[in-house]
Design brief:
single chain, 317 residues, alpha/beta, Arginase, Chain A, two-stranded antiparallel ribbon, 9 helices
């Protein structure tokens, strides 16, 4: 059968080849991006306050993504009777932003340049962290993109203004985002137990229009009920901290918090937001693979990202 139809060429099994995200083409020249989706690695974890290691997140999530990439475009979902991410969705991998050790501002500037390059190339920027501080340069890059609303899936509020002079660590990104004139609001989902932000931070967030929901509150509403709280017509940027998930399924993270979401809790929110809103960007952060010898955390991250992208472009049809 060799040489006939789909049997021609390489079988290209998941464990064969170089691990770009989803085995999609690598584009080293950021000035020549022409794609629907651009994946950027942001392997920066100097913003962490506990266990570091998320610098290895992008590499690990890319490797895990090959599991879902059997050398053929698209994935058929029998429940939805839909083919997600067909060949018509052009996805490229930009590689990683350059990280300068001990220099947060230079590293963040390099990440911001990558997201801007993706936007200039007409692509949906999808950034794989790294710790949650990498959301700060991601959001900075949207300063000329119009108004956006942030949907944060996370165990921690990340709304600290300043602590001992630190303003750009992984406890600060949602506070930095809320300061932007083009961020019209935040929906913060999964926040639970003893969080990263003091009581005053919660009051500050709510005064700035944040809608804060715990895992139990989100489950009581249901995935669609959560998404229905986002203002109608808002353009949405999604930021997912892997510690939003229960560490029973995602132990590979720096600050695990029990009582988290399970897979479908988040997957169904992603499907609902893609159907109801224009999604303008995505980041997924805080995968620290060395704390999970099974690789399950990275597989979860890759699966969530690929499915979310599938929902986004299926909704555009």
């Amino acid at each position: 059968m060799s040489g006939h139809g789909y049997e021609s060429g390489r079988l290209n099994l998941p464990f064969v080849g170089i691990s770009t995200f989803g085995k999609r083409p690598y584009v080293e020249d950021w000035s020549s991006i022409d794609a629907d989706v651009a994946i950027l690695g942001a392997p920066f974890d100097a913003g962490t306050q506990f266990r570091s290691g998320a610098r290895f997140g992008p590499r690990s999530v890319r490797e895990a993504s090959t599991l879902f990439s059997f050398g053929h475009a698209g994935a058929y979902d029998h429940e939805d009777d839909a083919i997600y991410l067909p060949g018509s969705v052009r996805m490229i991998d930009m590689g990683d932003a350059d990280i300068v050790h001990t220099d947060t501002m230079k590293s963040h500037a390099n990440i911001e340049a990558g997201v801007r390059a993706a936007l200039t190339g007409g692509a949906l920027p999808v950034t794989i962290g790294g710790d949650h501080s990498i959301n700060i340069p991601c959001i900075n890059a949207f300063d000329d993109q119009g108004d956006i609303h942030i949907l944060q899936i996370d165990a921690h509020l990340d709304f600290v203004d300043e602590r001992h002079g630190v303003r750009y660590g992984h406890g600060n990104p949602m506070r930095r985002a809320a300061e932007k004139s083009y961020i019209t609001g935040l929906t913060q989902v999964g926040i639970r137990n003893v969080s990263s932000t003091a009581k005053e931070g919660y009051e500050d967030a709510r005064s700035r229009g944040s809608d804060i929901l715990s895992v139990r509150q989100a489950r009581a509403l249901g995935p669609q009920g959560v998404i229905d709280r986002i203002p109608q017509g808002a353009r949405v940027y999604i930021t997912i901290d892997i510690d939003a998930f229960c560490p029973s399924i995602a132990p590979g993270t720096g600050t695990p918090s029990h009582g988290g979401f399970l897979y479908y809790d988040v997957l169904e929110m992603m499907q609902a937001v893609a159907q109801r809103h224009e999604v303008v960007g995505v980041d997924l952060v805080e995968v620290a693979p060395d704390y999970d010898p099974t690789g399950s955390t990275s597989i979860l991250a890759a699966q969530i990202l690929l499915n979310t992208l599938g929902f986004i472009f299926h909704a555009k049809n």
